[in-house]
Amino acid sequence: MNTTSTLAVAITLAVISVPAIASSNSEVWTTSNGSAVVDSSGNPIRTIHYREKKVAVITPAPQESVSVIKAVEQAVVIAPAKQEPQIIVEQVAQVDVEASQVVAKKVVAKKVVAKKVAAKNVAAKNVAASETIEPQVITPKVEYAFNTYETRVLFDTASATLSADASGSLTQLVMATGLAQSIISVQVVGHADTRGDQAYNMTLSEQRMHSVANFLDGLKLKVTSMFAKGETSPVLNENGEDLAKSRRVYVAIKTRHLKD
């Protein structure tokens, strides 16, 4: 029986136990619908203390009615309690679901963090491997300077023999190149004055050229190029040809130096 049905029965029983307004000593107690109120033996209960027409004093309900009302009250109190376990279970289930969602989010977050850490470790290993396999080599920039050392040695008429002055000049020239980082080229060019036969002068310029080349070779300096020009390039001044300067050999040494 549900709460509504129980309450209706209790109210009906309580109304039956309330006496109606008495009209005389022989009148019986009736309910609001006109039914007589009877005792446990089925006999009508009469009004034996009626004196004047007034509202009857309602006496306490029989013990049975009180018990019924209490039963109704207990039913009203207990009935909602029967639904509480279901509500609590639903609340607990909701809490469990929320807790599971929180735990799942934490697990996902930990996995994301673990993936990021793993990616960083892989990147670090790749960097370390590249540094190990292909180390960076820094090549210093080197700058050079180039110099040309030159001199002219003179010969006597119709001679290809080096004089003391010529030998000294060649020696000083070679010593000047001693601080060079490297020797790039050594050039020797022989000449003669215009006197005499042209063919003879060509041969004489060639002999002078070889005399200088051999001397440089003795100083451990290898000649890279040689030319014999004969009388084709005389030295001229305001009076004409300078015969002494025309009998010459030109020497040029090109070197490379490290810049400071």
Write up this protein:
The chain folds into 2 domains: about 5-80, no CATH class; about 145-260, 60s Ribosomal Protein L30, Chain: A (2-Layer Sandwich). The chain is about 45% helix and about 15% strand. The two termini are about 115 Å apart. The chain is of the alpha+beta class and about 260 residues long.
What is this structure, in a nutshell?
The chain has 6 helices and 6 strands, in the order αααβαβαβββαβ. It is α+β, with helices and mostly antiparallel strands. The chain folds into 2 domains: 3-81, no CATH class; 144-258, OmpA-like domain (60s Ribosomal Protein L30, Chain: A, 2-Layer Sandwich), CATH 3.30.1330.
CATH homology group of the largest domain: OmpA-like domain
The rounded Rg comes to: 71 Å
Query: Can you count the helices?
Result: 6
Q: What's the overall geometry? A: rod-shaped
Q: Domains counted in the coordinates: how many?
A: 2
Oligomer status: single chain
CATH class of the largest domain: Alpha Beta
Strand order of the largest sheet: 1-6-2-3
- Give the overall pLDDT as a whole number: 75
How do the SSEs run, as a string of H and E? HHHEHEHEEEHE
Q: What amount of the residues lies in strands?
A: 15-25%
Count of β-strands: 6
The CATH architecture assignment of the largest domain turns out to be: 2-Layer Sandwich
Largest sheet: 4 strands, mixed
CATH topology of the largest domain: 60s Ribosomal Protein L30, Chain: A
For the record, give the distance between the C-alpha atoms at the N and C termini, rounded to a whole number: 115 Å
Q: What class would the helix/strand composition place it in?
A: alpha+beta
Q: Bin the helical content.
A: 40-55%
Low-confidence stretches: 9-25, 49-61, 76-83
